[in-house]
Amino acid sequence: MKADPNKFPELNKTKFEQRGTEFKLGVPIINAVTIGNSIAVSFGDGTVRIFNSGQSSEPIKAHKGVVLSMSKDGDNILTGGDDGRFLKISLDGKINEIANFNSRWVDHVTANNGSLVCSSGKVVYLWAPNKKEPKLLEHESTIGGVAFDQKGRRLAVSRYGGVTLWKKDYTNKWKSSDLIWKGSHNKVIFSPDDRYIVTSMQENQLHFWRLKDKIDSAMSGYGAKVKSFSFVDNSKYLATSGAKDAVCWPFDGDGPAGREPICLPYVGNKLVTFVEPFPNENAILTGLSDGSVFLSEIEKSNNTIIIRSFTESEVSAIAVTKDCSHLLIGDMGGNILWTSIWDEENN
Amino acid sequence: MEETNKQVPVTVLTGFLGAGKTTLLNRILTEQHGKKYAVIVNEFGEQGIDNDLVVDADEEVFEMNNGCICCTVRGDLIRILSGLMKRADKLDAIIVETTGLADPAPVAQTFFVDQDVADRTKLDAIVTVADAVHLSSQLTDHHEAEEQIAFADVVLLNKIDLVDESGLEVVKERIKKINPFAKIINTTKCGVPLNEVLNLDAFSLNRVLEVEPDFLTSDHDHEHDDDVTSLSFVSDTPLDMEKFQDWFSKLLQTKGQDILRTKGILDFTGESDRYVFQGVHMLMDASPMGKWPEGKERSSRLVFIGRNLESMNLKEGFENCKSA
Hints:
The structure holds two protein chains of two kinds. In chain A, the strands form seven sheets. In chain A, strands 15-16-17-18-19-20 form a six-stranded antiparallel beta sheet, with no helix packed on it. In chain A, 3% of the residues lie in helices and 53% in strands. Chain A has helices at residues 9-12, 15-19, and strands at 21-24, 29-35, 38-43, 47-52, 55-56, 60-61, 67-73, 76-81, 85-89, 95-100, 108-112, 115-120, 123-127, 135-138, 145-148, 154-168, 174-190, 196-201, 206-210, 215-219, 229-232, 237-240, 246-250, 262-264, 272-277, 283-288, 293-297, 300-308, 315-320, 326-331, 335-340. By secondary structure, chain B is of the alpha/beta class. Chain B folds into two domains: 2-203, P-loop containing nucleotide triphosphate hydrolases (Rossmann fold); 226-319, Hypothetical Protein Yjia, Chain: A,domain 2 (2-Layer Sandwich), CATH 3.30.1220.10. Chain B contains eleven helices and 14 strands. Chain B has helices at 2-5, 21-30, 75-84, 105-113, 115-120, 135-141, 143-151, 165-178, 205-208, 241-255, 314-319, and strands at 8-14, 37-42, 54-57, 61-63, 72-74, 93-97, 121-131, 154-158, 183-186, 228-235, 259-266, 273-280, 283-291, 300-307. The chains are: A mainly beta, B alpha/beta.
């Protein structure tokens, strides 16, 4: 069903592409983070660019190699790189080096209410708000991911053999407990209602723990590793990549144990490589391995619209501005689309 | 787009502490070759390599939950290779240094098991640096030294200036007994052209076709049971595919721990193509590799490197696969 891109190029473009702005930057896009109505994008050459109103900033030279991870701290961007640096970058491009681990990569970064976290190797470094020296949280194996809960009182650290859950007690000391499941755990997230922790694994599956009673279970059946997953509509569903459908697990009520996921199919039979919840809706933006992006309502599988047609490069980043007016799509081939979500003439 | 989809070759560099791995790595990083190489070094590395493209790693061996009992992979390698593959500038090759006491199998298995690693990189060769003076005693004292020789595609026999000729022959014989396919290169201070250790494509099935059974005439003395040895078999009678698959898969399932490497070219009854495979423990890469060359005799060749091979009744098992 693929149209020949050399013929009728305009006909291949969606209305979102026609009214949007395309950037062909030729550098792999690693991540995108929303900061207000700006979107920060990190690249495989160590740079970060800020996109706003269809314009790109000059590239900010943050790292030497790859920007391995990116998050935000208020209105600032946090990045970790394969040059061993952990950086805080303002939207106008000022770089503040928080730590430098040299040839040790900074694999993961996150923040909550002024507390800054990065991981390098087996150690999590945690800076309390406005503190110069970090607290070191050590683990037995290399860290696969880090995530704060919504209040910043618990920090989940995924690793080989499960998750270490660090909790701040009332004397502000961090104490750890373990959530155990055999195998290597990568990315970790809390559900927005803080009831669940979910990890993706080296195997083609996810794992979840319900925190109130530590019930846990695997979510499996994927054809590829699950690299992108996110809760939708305030924890109602967990949308996941790693299959030819966007697989959405129900997390309302008693959670997904014993229940079937909703599978949203897409034309073209390509692998889903990225999922991003559409803010405040029971809907997701789905990016595929051929670069195409769709917007789908989870409970109405016939209600899917195409946002971007194929580019031949896998979608690696999607972000929506805070006011839900615009979105940005990036892929591993270095193509970016910035477009308005609503038809401006009709508004 | 073709260019970005190219798999980057990964060379695994093994060898005991002091054999000369760091000397070789420094040469790879500092010589003017116009290529971009990344080097992944372990935390117990010898010292003194400083370069933007040097990555520190902890050797972390992970068990996979896939029911394969000897399926272990290097978790750190999956993480670092995935990171390197996101770089905007493409690498010409990646070199992975392992610690002197590391088992090379999990490194090799990583390339069979992890789909992302297999999509973007390929195992090029296992290069083992050996110290001509100390190898014999290391082989006696440490099974890891034996494994490093057993897995090697190339053995850099280093420091040959420090042994006499007869001593050198003894060491070479010892290497050949463990692994008759490895190419042995004599060096002092790892002085070898880099094209003899990098970009060899030793794990491609095409290379298996070049395996020559010239060692077949050598007698197999009785070895200690846990010595690593090799055995090989040739048959001019075509094999029955079903019987072979049945025997071979059971063999790998039950004895895969002891079988370190296998290679083979197979002539199946009723098939016009050559079947070629190569494996590391229980994991295998296999494919038909085109027609048999015209005018040449068809024959099957099968090679094993491992421990306790004598106890596996390999000859009998192989004989039973011949078409009646």
